[in-house]
């Protein structure tokens, strides 16, 4: 089993133990990485780009990774297949995009009403999540690693205010993953549209509402210029992206390069999380000032209750005859129940007592 919890000090020691002269004689490995994202989609595209830079620097140029944006390879939702088939050595995407191919991949991105980013990363690295993810992706002959979190995402931009459940019925909405199934159960028409088509779809009325990420990424998309009702989240409390690595190619790397790659992925994932947090704080300050018509809203309690009920029903349905999926969801649920007590004691009560 891969030692995914390798620390920076291990990689540093490995690098320090290799002289520049000896590394110069070693084979140079040239890899390619395909992303689901366009090259301007920061910080999603930044995570693999920064990872590749770290790898090249730490390996003294022995491992070089070319990062291709979706507009180059033209298959934003084909990343898993391209890494599995060997057309690309690595990928950067989101695990829930593969639920149509393998339902067991779904929970490794995020689940509605699930764990926050710190909670989920604790589960990955200390609660058995990495081992379960390895079990799922093994049959696809790829390795999967956490690839950067967006944190708690906003619930979406809506043209019209949602006051009752009836207001949702018949709406067309872009919302991916398991949350999309919940919304479909509540009467919405759900679609998954590539990022480059989202603004036009909302502007032309192809969709009535959409969720993307949060202020830091939404501001560049311009949704706030079209829809003024901005709802708080419930569906992606800790969306984690993923790095995919072709298992056969990984095993061909020298051990020191394997450890450098693992370390760079882990560091760049954390960097993306804090970068996005900063971006959202800056972007919201700008939105709030320049577009005072934006109304930040929370879905009414009857709507939230209906979402939770649909979530519970669907979770029971999807695990039938799927023991591995049930094992993953049970593991997440048990860990969330345990870790949430600390989250409440530390973050929630602090914020509750100190917000204006």
Fold and architecture overview:
It is globular, with a radius of gyration of 21 Å. The strands form two sheets. Strands 7-6-8-5-9-11 form a six-stranded mixed sheet, with helices on one face. Strands 2-1-3-10-4 form a five-stranded mixed sheet, with helices on both faces. The protein has 14 helices and eleven strands. Helix content is 49%, strand content 15%. The N and C termini lie far apart (48 Å). Residues 1-21 have low confidence and may be disordered. It is of the alpha/beta class and 356 residues long. The chain has a domain at 8-150 and 238-277: D-Maltodextrin-Binding Protein, domain 2 (3-Layer(aba) Sandwich). Strand 6 (172-174), helix 8 (177-185) and strand 7 form a beta-alpha-beta unit. Helix 1 packs across helix 12, helix 3 (46-58) packs antiparallel against helix 12 and helix 10 packs across helix 12.
The largest pleated sheet is described as: 6 strands, mixed
Strand order of the largest sheet: 7-6-8-5-9-11
CATH architectural arrangement of the domain at 8-150 and 238-277: 3-Layer(aba) Sandwich
Identify the CATH homologous superfamily of the domain at 8-150 and 238-277. Bacterial extracellular solute-binding protein, family 7
Q: Give me the CATH fold name of the domain at 8-150 and 238-277.
A: D-Maltodextrin-Binding Protein, domain 2
Distance between the termini: 48 Å
Using only C-alpha atoms, the radius of gyration works out to 21 Å
The CATH class name of the domain at 8-150 and 238-277 reads: Alpha Beta
> What oligomeric state do these chains adopt?
single chain
- Silhouette: globular
Number of helices: 14
Q: What letter string, H or E per element, gives the SSE order?
A: HHEHEHHEHHEEEHEHEHEEHHEHH
What class, by secondary structure content?
Answer: alpha/beta
Helix content: 40-55%
GO biological process, one term: transmembrane transport
Binding site for substrate: 153, 174, 211, 236
Organism: Poseidonibacter ostreae
GO cellular component, one term: tripartite ATP-independent periplasmic transporter complex
């Amino acid at each position: 089993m891969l030692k995914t919890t390798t620390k920076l000090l291990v990689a540093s020691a490995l690098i320090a133990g290799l002289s520049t002269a000896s590394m110069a004689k070693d084979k140079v490995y040239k890899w390619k990485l395909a992303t689901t994202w366009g090259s301007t989609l920061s910080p999603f595209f930044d995570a693999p780009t920064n990872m590749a830079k770290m790898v090249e620097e730490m390996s003294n140029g022995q491992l070089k990774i070319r990062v291709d944006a979706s507009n180059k390879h033209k298959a934003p939702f084909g990343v898993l297949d391209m890494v599995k088939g060997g057309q690309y050595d690595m990928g950067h995407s989101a695990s829930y995009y593969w639920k149509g191919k393998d339902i067991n991949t779904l929970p490794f991105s995020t689940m509605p009403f699930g764990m926050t980013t710190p909670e989920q990363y604790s589960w990955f690295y200390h609660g058995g999540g990495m081992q379960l993810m390895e079990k799922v992706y093994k049959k696809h002959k790829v390795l999967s690693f956490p690839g950067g979190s967006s944190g708690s995402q906003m619930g979406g931009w809506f043209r019209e205010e949602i006051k009752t459940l009836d207001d949702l019925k018949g709406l067309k909405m872009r919302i991916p993953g398991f949350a999309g199934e919940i919304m479909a159960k509540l009467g919405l028409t759900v679609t998954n549209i590539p990022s480059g088509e989202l603004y036009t779809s909302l502007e032309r009325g192809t969709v009535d509402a959409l969720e993307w990420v949060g202020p830091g990424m939404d501001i560049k998309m311009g949704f706030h210029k079209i829809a003024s009702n901005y709802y708080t989240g419930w569906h992606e409390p800790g969306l984690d992206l993923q790095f995919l690595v072709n298992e056969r190619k990984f095993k061909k790397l020298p051990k020191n390069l394997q450890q450098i790659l693992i370390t760079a992925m882990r560091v760049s994932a954390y960097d993306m999380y804090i970068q996005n947090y900063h971006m959202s704080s800056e972007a919201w300050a700008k939105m709030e000032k320049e577009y005072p018509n934006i109304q930040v809203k929370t879905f009414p309690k009857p709507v939230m209750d209906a979402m939770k009920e649909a979530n519970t029903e669907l979770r029971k349905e999807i695990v039938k005859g799927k023991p591995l999926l049930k094992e993953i969801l049970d593991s997440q649920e048990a860990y969330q129940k345990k870790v949430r007590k600390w989250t409440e004691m530390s973050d929630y009560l602090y914020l509750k007592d100190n917000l204006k």
